[in-house]
Prior knowledge:
The complex is a heterodimer. Chain A contains eight helices and nine strands.
Amino acid sequence: MPVDLARPIGQSPGIMAEPTQQPLSLQDMILRLHSFWSEQGCLILQPYDMRMGAGTFHPATTLRALGPEPWNAAFVQPCRRPTDGRYGENPNRLQHYYQYQVILKPSPENLQELYLQSLGVIGIDPLVHDIRFVEDDWESPTLGAWGLGWEVWCDGMEVTQFTYFQQMGGFDCKPVAGELTYGLERLAMYIQGVDNVYDLAFNSHGVTYGEVFLENEKQMSKWNFEVADTDSLFEGFRRAEAECVRSLEAGVPIAAYEQAIEASHLFNLLQARGVISVQERASYMGRVRDLARGSCEAHMEKNADQWAAKYPEWSN
Amino acid sequence: MTDFLLELRSEEIPARMQAGARADLEKLFRKALDAAGLKAGEVTVWSTPRRLALIARDLPLATEAVSEETKGPKTSAPEQALEGFLRKTGLTKDQLTERDGVWFAVTEKPGRATKDVLAEAIPAIIRAFPWPKSQRWGAASLSTESLRWVRPLSGIVAILGEDLVECEIGGVTSGYATRGHRFHHDGEITIGGASDYAEKLRACHVIVDHVERETLVREKAKAAAEAAGLVLVEDEGLVIENAGLTEWPVPLLGRFDEAFLDVPPEVIQLTARVNQKYFVCNYPPQNGEGDHAQHGGGGSPVTQRPTDSPLHHPAGGPPPRAGEDGRLANAFVCTANIEAKDGGVAIVDGNRKVLAARLSDARFFWEQDKKKPLSVHAEKLGRITFHEKLGTVADKVERVAKLARWLVEEGIVGATGSPAKAGASGSSAQPHEVPAFAGTQAELADQAELAARLCKADLVTEMVGEFPELQGLMGGYYARAEGLPDAVADAIRDHYKPVGQGDDVPTAPVTVAVALADKLDTLVGFFAIKQGPTGSRDPFALRRAALGFIRVVLENSLRFELLDVIGRSILRFIDERAYRGMTESDFIAAKDWLDEFQKDVDVTLPAFFADRLKVQQREAGVRHDLIDAVFALGGEDDLVRLLARVHALQAFVTTEDGTNLLAGYKRAANILKKEGFTASDLIPTDGEEDPMVMVDDPAFEGIADQMFSAAGAPAYQAEPAEQALVDALNAAEPQADSAIAAEDFTSAMAALASLRGPIDAFFDGVTVNDADANKRASRLALLDRFRAAVHKVADFSRIEG
């Protein structure tokens, strides 16, 4: 058996094979991903201009996963997770971070190969680093969505969530979309060999992630946990809920869905402020789910006839 | 005869599903062969993350031709019947044969090429495959009817001998081509057949045989630890999982910062195993294997199994710390799926960083949690609902604390070891005189109450929030860290025990008191709200709780009447209601309800315990009918004594005396039953009531006479065998009574055994059903007395055989 014996290993520098080559900065990494996925025929979209907990909430993922029309897009989405804030003191946890999101519908046969190629373009050599697809099924009760897939490990670190969507908003995905969600800061830390997110090179001209975001993390952690006015958050939640319902009645499901995004984020903020009890929690989540599902349902209804006309094999 | 190869290639199959998938593939394949009348020699199934493979040896090239005969109508039958038969068989009349006046149709089924059978079977197997979870994918998923597989199916290799078995499903067509290792081999590999499959894959860095990969992981991981002067903590679950995650496993050893060893070793191992699938390592023991038995916390007399794994060390004291041999080392072994260009330097370094981040989190939790004493953590338990009808966890803790104290104050759990054991072997029963608790009974009571108050506090700590499986264990660590007595810390750590069958049973008195009180409170509570287990449903794990309770009682020989203790536990629920400031009428209503449930619980819970005892003792070889026989006596709810009776009984009924006495008993019982004699039920024998009350009933005249006569001597001239039985009973009864009072059940059985000769002689020499009503009644009464004497030890009617 030509397998190498395991051996103890010491420290090593960053992962770039050539010591002379400078590791990719965060923004160069994004640019390379953009250019790679653009070459694969993806639309390169810009971030959605609303606060949300994950790239999956972006209408380019959620709403576009419904219906028969092909859809290929890639974009960076800033994500807000108020409860993950650590006042800039934790080297790995942030209340605001970036996801790189790719959605390909229908899922192409070579999706895994494309994904691995994309790791190649940002400098990860799969014969130096151990890339693994480890079972991790995805479910979002809030979106009424689930899929099967993996978390992709690079030397034991989860760098991407890889999912074949099976349902969205309670509807079967016909056809199935493949979704890739790269954790950008994690990947960049890995590629640059830094242990603290604030030490990341944002560009290759000496600007660090800390210079861009440390103060933001400090202030926003304080606001999320201590300052945010809970009365107006509660009020905002109720308003978003009401507006969602009104929009649904008015037949504008995209607008309704925006309100579901808004309500979801306000709920997360209320959680961070610690004003939602365990018992209430389930009820609030149920309310957000109703908004999201209602929007998906309305979006389906609004488009079903036109989709069915264009894709006879497709049926709602 | 030839061999068949099938490979179903897909995107990564979850490791945990591979064993089931192998079994299912073999089952479905064999079923398909059977249906076609084909027989294969050996069938081998392999799996990797990216393929399921099956090799069937010695398949015939075709199925055998079969000739099938179908019986038709009689030749004398009407024309329509024959026409119907011809339509059905598709034959003409001249193709039928006639035998004994009946038409027969013979259809010849020619043999089919095995290749064709397989070409049909493969898509059918794929379609019928019972994955625990499956998905659709790709353009075909426009329809929900599209093919489902565990992950997208990407290729089929199906070769019979050297011939391709052509088939197609979901757009995937069979062929000779497969793929090698995802990163070590580019492009396709052409497979010749079953004979070269495994070796061709091996050349492309795929070890297709999962058993070989498992061996490789096991041995190379061990070797990696040894090379570093360490001992791998073996973990077969991890071996299988890592073999299921790799096609070319390469175990690599790495180090993490020694400073993390401040965190309890169980936490490190759990983080490494659950989150990262790493093995951990120990420093080697200094004096060869096993000499480094770890010491229990102070006050715990438990004899501990030496072990090299802190996690496999459930009842022990604190885990090994610096300075001791065999302690956890700052090393891990991860299993890579490649032979890295740099020999694995980058892989190990990456994994080290990930583990370090995880351990930082764990250390953060550990340090945060320790900042507050358990009593402060416990304050949050009032916010956690235990069950909507049974209050919060804080309420439960309050009940358990009082019950634990009571168990000690009543002497049920003692500081000086267990009280006298119910003897299965007579007067030799000896109390354990092991000083199990270094303190007075009053101190024991205080510590039991304290431990009970703190035993659930770790549920609200950060660490247990992250790793629920560490409940109890973390509480023990935190208790020790804040300087609580070892006996209290041990009790907090071990009060959930015994959890599984092989788990240790607590013996330290403080732990025993808390463990019993906690389990009993759970059982009484859920039985009170009628949430006992039904069928296979046991959502509150009450069977496990009862089993744990029984094991703690038996293994510590704790002596008490079950109903007393249940009653005391019920009282806790009543008190609790009283605290809640109810109005008087509410209280009366609640009291009625509680009286009602007490009645209910008093019946249902002991019966449940008896059932659990049967299950538990079955493994120890104790017959369930004998438990029934003792339990049916009623009033025996001291589990230790009950079991001592059962043990003596089991020893007795297998002897010749026992078998014959049982036969005599059954004969007596049958006669009594046939004669409708139920006197022993009607006439009190305990002397507290007036036996004369029935004297006026003519049916009982003879009995009354007998009861009047001294020592059961009949009022007529008894026959010798009759008198001999009376004498034997006169002698045996007091002997049995005193032996039972001394809990010497073996002697009680011996006393009863003396009745075996007289009862046999009685049946041989005496006619029960005498024409003289007086004699008849008297003899029936004598048989009843015999039956009652036997019932002193057990209800023999419940004994089988």
